[in-house]
Amino acid sequence: MIFDYPSQRTERTHGPSGYSTYESYRPWLRDEFTFRCVYCLKREMWGQVTCEFELDHFEPQSVVPDRELDYFNLIYACSRCNSVKLNQGISDPLKILTSNFVVVLPDGALVSDNLDAKRIISQIDLDSPKLRSWRVMWMRIVDLANERDANLYQQLTGFPPDLPDLGRLRPPSNSRPQCIAMSWFAKRQLGHLPQSY
Ligand SMILES: [Zn+2]
Fold first, then answer.
1. Where are the domains of the chain?
2. From the CA of 190, how far away is ligand 1's center (Å)?
3. pTM score over 0.85
4. How far, in Å, from the CA of 78 to the mean position of ligand 1?
5. Residue 106 scores a pLDDT above 90
6. Cα dist. 123→41, 85, 109 in Å?
């Protein structure tokens, strides 16, 4: 299901560091967050014309200015969610916005009985009537494509063609270089990239 949140993660896959601009982390973050907004799960492939994805400072720069260039403080988010989050301090979505804690109903509503998850849903306004109907619209579009247009279905649920080749990036340092082998690019090289996700 396109709006099912991923399973809980205790840590990130990648660990690049030392870049002098936070934009340099973009390819790592695209891979880490599977080319979609960590909050609302909007996908790159649903709007490829403009660059709608931003690098959100999880702990706001106003609170921890020294973590501006810290990979572990950067999150891949759509411009809508990033602009709603602003300077709010929130729980780590990799641990909280997960299928263990949040269920998406067929009417687009988000349900959770976890207090931290409820708080993020409220802070990012993820269960607003607008987002509920947006989810229903996309579920319907993807269902229709699945029934009638295999290529379109593939586009809407598959990976973007420009998977970042992290092995060529050579960041100043990387605490988890072995994890580049787990990147989506590496999976595609081996023929292990799923058709859809
Ligand atoms: Zn979003």
1. 16-189
2. 31
3. yes
4. 4
5. yes
6. 16, 7, 15
